[in-house]
Amino acid sequence: MQTSSKPSSRQNVISERENPHSTSGGYFCVLMTQTGCCLGLAALLYITLTIGTVEILSLFPKTRAYSQQTPPVVTAEVCSKGSKGCTQKDSALRFLLIGDTGGLPIYPYTTLAQGTVRDTMIRLTEQNKVQLVLNVGDNIYFTGVANEFDARFETSFEEVYNHPIFDGIPFFTIAGNHDHFGNVSAQIAYTKYSRKWMYPDYWYKFNYTLSDGTTIDFLMIDTIVLCGNTADVEYGDLWDLLWKGSKVPDGPKDKKMAEKQWDWIAKTLNESRADYLFVGGHYPVFSMSSHGPTQCLVDRLKPLLEQFSVTAYFAGHDHTLQHLEVPTTDRHSHITYIVSGAASRTDRSTKHKNSVPQGSIKFNYPSGWNPFSQLGFSRGALIYVEINKDRAKFDFLKGNGESKYTMSLMSRKRSVKLDGDEEARTIEL
């Protein structure tokens, strides 16, 4: 699949005045709408519009630049080639599962929660020798990027995760709905310029083989291509997003492209003989929080996850941590659904707790009341995962690293039994 155009010969420096996604005074309204306080900022918005964007931005640095860097040896392309993929000299695979990392569209371009989560990621990587990061979308808030030279790559990603411990560690990434408001092909193209950012195509597979022969397959899918977006905006800015409003995804924009991906998903799942098989996308199949289940995925992805005994499905979109165990259609087994979308902001909503199958919710975080958590004024949250030949252990963490909940999944070649009372699942491969 052709994913991007040839990069421009222009100098790899972009002024923030050239970036439409970092200059909208409506940003404050978008944020405060999420907390029901937009009207209270009407005067501030009026002043912002009156003074003009140039004067506001004059308070902050004008130009951000990044240099073209040589990608690490372990790239998404390497991991997706051949049956062995990325072979590890280790009997365990350790990774961090994060989502909705997109930061802010104006200075300081990041949030308190994102910084807190980043510091914990550094500590975990130092202590546990983390080998990769899995990022399930909404990489750049609120309207993605304009092109592969967009300053937001630097200000909301490279500068945030600028620590030697991350050198050579791939951040395997997929697009979210906010990324699709901008230029997703530019995010794919940016893979050429970063030592961390790994996003080779709209959907792709990568795999790891451990020193004892244990195999782990990852499928990264574009759920916006499959199901449609939450607003009819493309290559837009914040005003476009405000004007169009939000909706439930009601079908793919490009049906041919969606069907091509569905065919690829079915074929790739069918071919997998890995000990562990994970699928990651932005929209959740099931969620108890603000957005709730995604009907398109319930109708078409859930049957595939069941048919091919997927170990777990990872998603973001809702700014929470969740663990759900949903019975298969025949009620003989279950599929694990995990949400990790709290890497730069959190959401305490339980709006859809009655929209998921009864008894499926095993864990949800955070809870309580914080009117500013969607603005990033919270600890954030993430998941640490460690896989060996016997089991995959998931540690659900507050942004500061405090463990809130743990669970384990067995290899697909072994019986799966969770919490001591779940029905066992076995698969012959």
Automatic annotation (TrEMBL):
<feature type="domain" description="Calcineurin-like phosphoesterase">
    <location>
        <begin position="93"/>
        <end position="320"/>
    </location>
</feature>
<dbReference type="InterPro" id="IPR029052">
    <property type="entry name" value="Metallo-depent_PP-like"/>
</dbReference>
<dbReference type="InterPro" id="IPR051558">
    <property type="entry name" value="Metallophosphoesterase_PAP"/>
</dbReference>
<feature type="transmembrane region" description="Helical">
    <location>
        <begin position="27"/>
        <end position="49"/>
    </location>
</feature>
<keyword id="KW-0812">Transmembrane</keyword>
<feature type="region of interest" description="Disordered">
    <location>
        <begin position="1"/>
        <end position="21"/>
    </location>
</feature>
<dbReference type="InterPro" id="IPR024927">
    <property type="entry name" value="Acid_PPase"/>
</dbReference>
<keyword id="KW-1133">Transmembrane helix</keyword>
<keyword id="KW-0732">Signal</keyword>
<dbReference type="InterPro" id="IPR004843">
    <property type="entry name" value="Calcineurin-like_PHP"/>
</dbReference>
<dbReference type="Pfam" id="PF00149">
    <property type="entry name" value="Metallophos"/>
</dbReference>
<feature type="compositionally biased region" description="Polar residues">
    <location>
        <begin position="1"/>
        <end position="14"/>
    </location>
</feature>
<protein>
    <recommendedName>
        <fullName>Tartrate-resistant acid phosphatase type 5</fullName>
        <ecNumber>3.1.3.2</ecNumber>
    </recommendedName>
</protein>
<keyword id="KW-0472">Membrane</keyword>
<dbReference type="GO" id="GO:0003993">
    <property type="term" value="F:acid phosphatase activity"/>
</dbReference>
<keyword id="KW-0378">Hydrolase</keyword>
